[in-house]
Structures are given as structure tokens and as C-alpha cells.
Amino acid sequence: NKKARALHTTGVLPQASYGVEGIGYAPWIIRSLRTMAADSMGCSKQGRCPITAIALAKGLEWDPYVRGPIQVFKHWAAISPKIEPKALEEAWSQMENHVLQPGGHAWARVKGPMAATFMHLREMGWKAHFGEQGHDGFMDTEGTLWKFNHEISWQDFEEQIQEIRENHLWKKAS
After folding, report:
1. Per-residue pLDDT at 156
2. pTM for the whole thing?
3. Closest by alpha carbon to 139, among 149, 127, 150?
4. Three-state DSSP class for residue 83
5. Per-residue burial over 23-59, b = 16 or more CB atoms within 10 Å of its CB, e = otherwise
6. Distances (CA, A) of 53 to 16, 28, 42
7. What is the DSSP letter of 150?
8. Nearest CA to 148 among 69, 72, 55, 79?
9. DSSP 25-37
10. Per-residue pLDDT tens for 81-99?
11. Predicted confidence (pLDDT) per residue in 54-88, tens digit
12. 174: Cβ–Cβ under 8 A, 6 or more apart, which residues?
């Protein structure tokens, strides 16, 4: 149903993802939003894989597992340069210790865009990178440094994140 798919993009998705930049997408939120997306696109049926349904209806870039972290990373890249580098490095270290403390689920301790960024990076095996000027980008699993400057465009970064997360989704799809 084309009308249902259009409403997902303009109505359901913006409402469901409001504030994601501050809290990220915990795995249980992703599952819920994925089900909602498949339902709102009119392609949810008993026994049908919602990942495949979304991929066929709109493309995997519309799956919350792909779309959400990109929003979080964009927000973090916009606000982190405004924070004094030493203060940011100290805050990042404290946040990591808080989020990763034993007991409970780490996502339950995510408060704010820094922690949301950290958790989404961690899911992919990436780490924040701190250079001479403080936090200056992300280090991927192959050792490539993705810096927040003119060297790497946001489009390249987004495409890399999207590719990694889409590949992961295809492995999960049934």
C-alpha cells in the first residue's frame, strides 16, 4: 500500500524517533520500531520477517537499526566540537565507566547523546578517538580514523555506517 508507506515516512517515523539523538536506540526499541514500521507500511503479516518486509517496501536504510545510529552520530558530531577537549575526554571516560558498570543492562544507563553515541559505536566494535585536539572522530574495526573535518565527508561516513549495519541486518533476516 503506497499511501501507508508514505505515511510511515512523514508521520509514524518522525513521531516514533523524536528525541533519539539523546537516548539512542536500545535493542528493544529497535525491535519495537521495526515492528511498527512493518505494520505502518502495510507489509506486516504473521510469519513474515519485518527486516525483509521493510527492505522490500522502502529499503533497509529505513530500518531503525540503520537510520537511528546515523541520527545519533550526526548530532554528536555537531555538538562535541563545542565542548572543551579536556573536559570532553574526562566526561567520556566517566560516562564509559558509568554505562559499563556491572549489573543490569548498559542501555538502561544511557543518558544523553554522548552515551548513545558510545553504545552505538560499541555495537559495531568502533571506538571514540581522542587526538591532540581532544575528541576528533571514530576509529573503526580496521583502524581507519573517521575524523570530524574536511578529510572525510559526512556522506562517506553515513554510507560506511549504513553498509555495516545493512550487512548485519541481512545476516539476521529470515
Report:
1. 81
2. 0.80
3. 127
4. coil
5. bbbbeebbeebbebbbbbbbbbeeeeebbbbbbebbe
6. 19, 19, 9
7. T
8. 79
9. --HHHHHHHHHHH
10. 888 888 888 898 899 999 9
11. 888 888 888 888 888 888 988 888 888 888 888 88
12. 49, 51, 52
